[in-house]
């Protein structure tokens, strides 16, 4: 055989075959495999640089989920007809894979590690994201890269009250939740969830259901690693020498402890500056070869102090209680001309959200590997450098901005009204004005306020809150509403959003290998109590329900449904009819293939007029209705009048006026506006109109040749009746 090291490993996951092929493709990578789940196939590779990267104080890991449109038999729609930058969904998939694998690498390693998952074939019933996560776990496990894996990941759905592992495309359409759970052999390593207001107990049981399913795949990967895995390499540790850390700790611990003891991030930063300068002045000469690691020692010292306060003293940096939320404030209507605005402030974290309503043609078009082709509700999140007191140029949204925007979008999507209930495209933009922890959850609260202020009839208000964690051996403690330092130095950022009824979104970031069931249960309970407090005490007193009226600056949207066979009549040749309607009514009209028509205009009367015209074109004018039309042609026997764009009828000369008409030119000319009444169609189905009947009905005119009815005069019976003529 040409590929002498080629091996295939097989198992089953959720009733579908799972195959891992190693030893054939990408053999120059540190570890590689082609993983096949159903007919979804992903090439996964993991490679580590030979030497550490100099001048970095973090582990340089990159994870790329590459969508190839050939995997679904499509050619890219771009001008170049090739894949460009990663789509938002690809970026989110990369983040989902990154989060469970990153904590399992040595924290003191500085060698670059690149992980790439290339989607080559897609079976809609077998998620490429889940397939890629398992494949990446295999690739790293069999490589020489130091790692404490493997992990496995599954998706958990809730269909007809039953949990389903890796639901099919049809099941996903009706599932009440979509939860991605990644696990090691003993702990839950990552949770990413979207749900339709699911209660805590249902969510917790679903997470545990997924965790149990992961155990079989973890053991499967261990078997592959034991058979074909490479020996893990040694690497130079980047941790500062222990004696160096202890010396700096003894010198600066009291000053650092005093500097950290404040609820103001700006004060804390100012207090730390002279301490950093004093430490460098004393120790740069003592450790000339390790001077760069002095910063690491000071970071490690701050982490030591904060964690000891939390674990030993139950004390938080800003003096709050363990389950106490920072001071909160909510406001609406901060901006004059936008359709809706809301600002939510939690301590020194502040998010301003703006809602914009638009016609359905503003929906975002998607060109990806799944079946979704457009998005009606969009949530964008911006994190400018000034929000953390820094000066960096804006380069557009990065992975963090895309991820936080997607989390807020997922949290609010279950309460967004359907197109039938609210026929608008909706965009919410969250501007982070100040950041000291948990801006993503602040943006959810601000966006709920903004949507309600804009008059979007959301089904229930949504709030978000985060829960932190500090562990030491078997000890652990959780705290609600973590700020920046507790995020930096803690072990978890467990973000939960939802209504009072249940959870709509979860995102869990970890710095440890995983969570026990007890930690997950406690985090869910604490975040539920916190978000109910935020809703009842802070948000709902500001605006208790969505406004009934839209902003005067928002377009007024009306819909109607027509026979799809009549779409051509509404649009007209080269779009002339629909363009004329839009110009006449100062509106925008979108027509779907199924005959659904969306009309938007700033003036409601204009929108109603446009809908009336569309209905007239599609269904024909109603007999007896009065229209104001335009004379288009003059004939000897009558005139033709366009009552709405594309609909023309004839007024016979006998129906042109209340008096006898000899010539049509005596009454009207081309371009004149006249009122007409719709008469029954003739035997040939032609539209007949009457100006005469319209004048009688609308203006109360009396025809000249019609004599008003009079009472007969009294006559003697013997007198003969005289002939009138």
Could you list some keywords that capture this structure?
725 residues; alpha+beta; 8-stranded antiparallel β-sheet; 6-stranded mixed β-sheet; 15 helices
In short:
The protein is an alpha+beta fold and 725 residues long. Helix 2 packs across helix 4, helix 5 packs across helix 7 (294-313) and helix 13 (576-585) runs antiparallel to helix 14.
Tell me about this structure.
With 725 residues, the protein is an alpha+beta fold. It has 15 helices and 29 strands. The strands form 6 sheets. The chain has an 8-stranded antiparallel beta sheet, sandwiched between helices. The chain has a 6-stranded mixed beta sheet with strand order 1-2-3-4-6-5. A 5-stranded mixed beta sheet has the order 11-12-13-17-16. Strand 11 and strand 12 form a beta hairpin. Helix 8 packs across helix 9. The protein is elongated, with a radius of gyration of 35 Å. The termini are far apart. The C terminus is likely disordered.
- Rg result: 35 Å
Strand content: 25-35%
Shape: elongated
Strand order of the largest sheet: 8-7-9-10-21-20-18-19
First CA to last CA: what distance?
Answer: 120 Å
* Spans of at least 5 consecutive residues with low confidence: 706-725
Count the E strands. 29
Quickly give the structural class: alpha+beta
- pLDDT averaged over residues: 92
The residue fraction in helices comes out at: 25-40%
Biggest sheet, in brief?
Answer: 8 strands, antiparallel
Counted by DSSP, the helix tally is 15
Task: Please describe the topology of this protein.
Elements: E1 7-13, E2 16-22, E3 31-37, E4 40-52, E5 61-67, H1 88-101, E6 111-121, H2 128-142, E7 152-159, E8 162-165, H3 169-174, E9 177-183, E10 188-198, H4 200-228, H5 242-260, H6 265-283, H7 294-313, E11 328-332, E12 340-346, E13 349-358, E14 364-365, E15 374-375, E16 377-382, H8 399-412, E17 425-434, H9 439-454, E18 463-472, E19 475-480, H10 484-489, E20 492-498, E21 503-510, H11 517-539, E22 556-561, H12 567-571, H13 576-585, E23 588-591, E24 596-601, H14 604-619, E25 626-635, E26 638-644, E27 647-652, E28 673-679, E29 688-690, H15 691-699
Parallel strand pairs: 5-6, 16-17, 27-29
Antiparallel strand pairs: 1-2, 2-3, 3-4, 4-6, 7-8, 7-9, 9-10, 10-21, 11-12, 12-13, 13-17, 14-15, 18-19, 18-20, 20-21, 22-24, 23-24, 25-26, 25-28, 26-27, 28-29
Helix pairs in contact: 1-2, 1-8, 2-4, 5-6, 5-7, 8-9, 13-14
């Amino acid at each position: 055989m040409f590929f002498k090291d080629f091996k295939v490993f097989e198992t089953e996951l959720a009733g579908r075959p799972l195959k891992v092929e190693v030893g054939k493709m990408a053999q120059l990578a540190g570890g590689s495999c082609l993983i096949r789940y159903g007919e979804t196939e992903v090439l996964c590779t993991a490679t580590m640089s030979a030497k550490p990267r100099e001048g970095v104080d973090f582990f340089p890991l990159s994870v790329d989920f590459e969508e190839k449109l050939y995997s679904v038999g499509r050619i890219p729609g771009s001008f170049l007809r090739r894949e460009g930058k990663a789509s938002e969904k690809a970026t989110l998939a990369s983040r989902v894979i990154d989060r469970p694998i990153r904590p399992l690498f040595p924290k003191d390693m500085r060698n670059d590690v690149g992980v790439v998952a290339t989607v080559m074939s897609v079976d809609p019933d077998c998620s490429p994201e889940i397939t890629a996560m398992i494949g990446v776990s295999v690739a790293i496990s069999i490589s020489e890269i130091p790692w404490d894996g493997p992990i496995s990941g599954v998706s958990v759905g809730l269909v007809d009250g039953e949990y389903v592992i890796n639901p099919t495309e049809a099941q996903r359409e009706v599932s009440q939740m979509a939860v991605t759970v990644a696990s090691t052999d003993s702990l839950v390593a990552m949770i990413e969830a979207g749900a339709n207001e699911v209660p805590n107990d249902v969510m917790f049981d679903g997470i545990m259901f997924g965790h149990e399913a992961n155990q079989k795949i973890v053991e499967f990967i261990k078997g592959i690693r034991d058979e074909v895995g490479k020996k893990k390499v040694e690497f130079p540790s980047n941790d500062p020498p222990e004696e160096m850390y202890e010396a700096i700790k003894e010198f600066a611990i009291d000053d650092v402890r005093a500097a950290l003891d404040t609820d103001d991030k700006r004060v804390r930063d100012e207090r730390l500056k002279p301490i950093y300068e004093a430490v460098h002045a004393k120790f740069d000469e003592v450790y000339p070869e390790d001077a760069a690691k002095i910063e690491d020692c000071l970071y490690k010292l701050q982490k030591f102090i904060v964690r000891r306060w939390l674990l030993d003293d139950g004390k938080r940096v800003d003096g709050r209680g363990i389950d106490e939320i920072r001071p909160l404030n909510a406001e609406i209507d901060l901006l004059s001309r936008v359709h809706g605005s809301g600002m939510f402030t939690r301590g020194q974290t502040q998010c301003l959200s703006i809602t914009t309503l638009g016609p359905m043609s503003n929906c975002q078009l998607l060109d990806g590997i799944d079946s979704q082709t457009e998005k009606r509700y969009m949530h964008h999140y911006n994190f400018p450098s000034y929000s953390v007191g820094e000066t960096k140029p804006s380069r557009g949204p990065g992975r963090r901005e895309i991820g936080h925007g997607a989390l807020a979008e997922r949290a609010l999507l279950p309460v967004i009204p359907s197109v039938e209930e609210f026929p608008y495209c909706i965009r919410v933009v969250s501007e982070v004005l100040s950041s000291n922890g948990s801006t993503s959850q602040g943006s959810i609260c601000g966006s709920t306020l903004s949507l309600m202020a804009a008059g979007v009839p959301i089904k229930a208000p949504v709030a978000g809150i985060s829960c932190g964690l500090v562990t030491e051996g078997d000890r652990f403690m959780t705290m609600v509403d973590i700020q920046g330092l507790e995020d930096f130095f803690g072990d978890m950022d467990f973000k939960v959003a939802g209504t009072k009824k249940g959870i709509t979104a979860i995102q869990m970031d970890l710095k440890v290998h995983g969570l026990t069931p007890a930690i997950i249960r406690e985090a869910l309970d604490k975040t539920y109590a916190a978000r109910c407090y935020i809703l009842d005490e802070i948000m709902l007193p500001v605006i208790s329900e969505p406004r009934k009226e839209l902003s005067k600056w928002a377009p007024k949207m009306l819909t109607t449904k027509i026979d799809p066979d009549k779409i051509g009549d509404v649009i007209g040749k080269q779009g002339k009819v629909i363009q004329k309607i839009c110009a006449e009514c100062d509106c925008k009209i979108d027509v779907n293939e199924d005959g659904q028509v969306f009309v938007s205009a700033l003036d409601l009367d204009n929108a109603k007029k446009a809908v009336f015209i569309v209905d007239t074109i599609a269904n024909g004018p109603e007999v007896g209705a009065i229209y104001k039309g335009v004379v288009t042609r003059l004939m000897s026997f009558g005139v033709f009048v366009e009552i709405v764009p594309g609909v023309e009828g004839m007024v016979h000369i006998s129906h042109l006026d209340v008096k006898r008409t000899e010539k049509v030119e005596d009454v009207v000319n081309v371009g004149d506006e006249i009122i007409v009444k719709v008469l029954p169609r003739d035997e040939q189905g032609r539209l007949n109109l009457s100006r005469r009947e319209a004048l009688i009905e609308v203006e109360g005119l009396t025809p000249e040749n019609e004599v008003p009815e009079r009472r007969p005069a009294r006559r003697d019976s013997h007198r003969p009746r005289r002939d009138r003529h």
